[in-house]
Amino acid sequence: MQPDPIDGSAAEYFEKSAAAYPHHIAVRDGIREISYPELNRRANQLAREILTHDPGNAPIPFYLGYDISTVTAILGILKTGCPFVVLDPSFPAERNRLILSTLDARLLITDSVHKTSAESCTTSTVNPILINLDNLSTLLDGENLGIGIPPEALLCIIFTSGSTGTPRGVMCSHRYMAFTILQAIKAVGISPEDKLSIFSPFTYMGAVNFILRAFFTGASACLYDARTRGLAGMSEWLQKEGITIFSAPASSFRAILNFLPENQLLEQLRFVSIGGENTVLSDAILFRAHTTPLCVMQVSLACTETNTITMLLLDHTMPVTDQTISTGYPVPWQELFLVDENRQPVEPGEIGEIAVKTRYLCSGYWKEPELNAEKFLQDPIDPLFHTFFTGDLACQLPDGTLQFQCLNDSQLKIRG
Questions:
Q1: pLDDT value for 26
Q2: Are 304 and 170 in contact (CB under 8 A)?
Q3: In whole angstroms, how far apart are CA 363 and each of 36, 85, 153, 172, 387?
Q4: Residues facing residue 378 across a β-bridge
Q5: Which residues contact 173 (CB under 8 A, 6 or more apart)?
Q6: Are strands 220-223 and 25-28 parallel, antiparallel or unpaired?
């Protein structure tokens, strides 16, 4: 099946939603809420402030809290045609300093609350200009900029730890992200009336993915900072906010639902997405105990470089007998192979490294040409296709589903 063509950037998709749904809430962060038009206006003002510093197409990092300011920064940066990079204030300053140095950052977006700690991440050699969101001029034009952004332009760089613990920048283009978002919207049927929960840090692809799902459709993104608020209160929050689509790593999913009384239902929830680790029989039992028969659970395997690799949908009637639930079937827009250490296909039922061939992969790792050559192989017949070797180990079951085993190195990779 030929994938749908991508005809717009993430900023353009958001602007269409802002025009189509002027009365919809775009983001709620537990303290404030902001409508689509107001968020669009603030992001446009930030974009114009950024452009006064002539950033070119260089990555622009931000250092902000888990609230509406982060979302404003993401959109403001995207509207300039530059990729955004998240610096997490909860991470050690040395890690953020290393990322800034790797980027050779010229600008750094922050606010008054985080300004001092943001400055501590700079050095004498890497000393970017700070843009304080709280000090933006109200006279800046809030209208759309109309900058044409090609699909191959970078949308963001997500710095993962990698197997060495050293931050490694995964470059994600607008084409890659738009395609994966649109496929998810089709699979879930996200509508403007939906409310999506987001509680993973924005240093994880899962949070970026889910907030863009909301913005592509006019739905509401509801932020919950689990690191400061804890998981104990999240089940109550899910009910209070009327969350309809919920995503979490399997371990967090268990913890959150286990706080609920035995017979209590999350009645407004219609779709649950869990991943990051193996899902077990007790997860399916827990899901069915606390959701209505109309709710569906998606089990999937994904990584930052490919996004979703396999997917399995479970409703309240599908039989589940195995103790460990498979991560599902390969998604139709990718070819999936299991290979041995010599990158040769393994025999049916044997464990092998997952390799993914598709047109829609990340654009490689930031400033790591040798690693890119090793991990991303261009197809000799169609140069638009590449094969990525994930490092994840799995085996294919007789029914065609994939059973995740482990990461092929010493460090566990969690994706929520």
A1: 98
A2: yes
A3: 30, 15, 10, 6, 12
A4: 386
A5: 151, 152, 153, 154, 155, 362, 363
A6: parallel
Alpha carbons 57 and 42: distance in angstroms, whole number: 21
Q: What is the pLDDT of residue 165?
A: 67
Tokens of 31: 């303290």
Measured at the CA of 375, the angle between CA 177 and CA 313, to 5 degrees, comes to 50
Q: What is the mean pLDDT of residues 145-166?
A: 85
54/126 Cα distance (integer angstroms): 17
DSSP string spanning 7-69? -S-HHHHHHHHHHH-TTSEEEE-SS-EEEHHHHHHHHHHHHHHHHTT--TT--EEEE--SSHH
Is the pLDDT assigned to residue 354 strictly greater than 50?
yes
* Longest Cα–Cα distance in the chain: 65
Cα gap 295→277, rounded to integer Å? 21
Contact predicate 299/271, CB 8 Å: no
Q: Is the pLDDT of residue 7 over 80?
A: no
pLDDT reading at 3 higher than 50: no
Contact 403, 326 (CB under 8 A): yes
Confidence class of residue 405 from pLDDT cuts 50, 70 and 90? confident
How far from 187 is each of 181, 227, 254, 264, 275, CA to CA, in Å?
A: 10, 30, 24, 27, 16
Distance of alpha carbon 271 from its chain centroid, rounded?
17
Encode pLDDT of 82-119 as tens digits. 999 999 999 999 999 999 999 999 999 999 999 999 99
Number of Cβ atoms within 10 Å of the Cβ of 228: 10
The pLDDT of residue 5: 59
